Amino acid sequence: MISNFTIKGNKIILKNTGEYFGAIHNFEYNIGDKLYEFAIMSHQDFDKLKDMYNQLIELVCYAKETDSEEERLDCFFKMFQIVRD
Question: pLDDT tens digits, residue range 11-37?
Fold first, then answer.
């Protein structure tokens, strides 16, 4: 995969042009700050994050495997709810 990382104002930015990570639209994500947050995260918070990612991965896999557009949309709504909480 071509590198999508760039430096912007002393920050490491992940830049997506819509073709990677299952995203439809372009976005930029400040990954450097997130990596720092992971580095200083407490053990309990890391376990919560791990559980959240496991739920998200299960939903993404199910959405990719189902033929039903309605179930796929339901998975996306559930993903947004998990991330928002």
Answer: 766 666 655 555 555 666 666 677 777
